Amino acid sequence: MELLIKSLELKSGEKNVYIEGYASASVKDLEGEIITEEALRLAARELTKEPYNKLFINHAPLRPDSDSVDKLPIGKVIDASVINGRLWIRAILNKAHPRFETIYRSIRDGFLNAFSIGFRALKKVGKQIKRLKILEVSLVSIPANPQAIITDVYEKSMKLNESVDFKSVFYPRAEKSALMIELDENKELKIF
């Protein structure tokens, strides 16, 4: 699957950077474990709530060798759902992070192109995880779960008012395709 990069330059000014993809999937991982789809579905409900909605680099808060900069969140999860057995997320990146530019370029250029979840298994039967608590999501180069990949990275500078349903504008699809967005002659947003 090719990474789709979008730049939605609708107004001048500061842009936010978003990434989307699959943080996990109900398939066998490198440890031979499988998180059930139901466990992912239950976890997705909690994933956008503080304090467990944070996005890090390489599981920094769970590693004792991480420095204080590594332990700063590089972003936060703002949307999550399960699609065809895969935990889809959308996250906004933290532009105040001291390593933002390096991380953003690494994502954009495909060097940092996967997700990984740090979690605690709450119910496990053999190698099957039936219930879990996701503690954090990390950007990684090599994921434990082979389907945990970043699918989109984009910038946007449009300001959404509270009446706009963000999910209806950028709803995840099982198979990604290019989303065309432009302003018409009346300065109204057209999406096709």
Provide an overview of this structure.
By secondary structure, the chain is mainly β. The chain has one domain (4-157, 181-191): Serine Protease, Human Cytomegalovirus Protease, Chain A, CATH 3.20.16. The chain has three helices and eleven strands. It has helices at 37-46, 100-108, 166-169, and strands at residues 4-8, 16-25, 34-35, 54-57, 75-83, 86-93, 114-125, 128-140, 150-156, 181-183, 189-191. Strands 1, 2, 3, 4, 5, 6, 7, 8 and 9 form a nine-stranded mixed beta sheet that branches. Strands 10-11 form a two-stranded antiparallel ribbon.
Q: What composes the largest sheet?
A: 9 strands, mixed
Radius of gyration, in angstroms, nearest whole number: 17 Å
Going by CATH, the architecture would be: Alpha-Beta Barrel
In CATH, the topology is named: Serine Protease, Human Cytomegalovirus Protease, Chain A
In short:
The protein has 192 residues and is mainly beta. 12% of the residues lie in helices and 40% in strands.
Note the topology:
Layout: E1 4-8, E2 16-25, E3 34-35, H1 37-46, E4 54-57, E5 75-83, E6 86-93, H2 100-108, E7 114-125, E8 128-140, E9 150-156, H3 166-169, E10 181-183, E11 189-191
Parallel strand pairs: 1-9, 3-8, 4-8
Antiparallel strand pairs: 2-6, 2-9, 4-5, 5-6, 7-8, 10-11
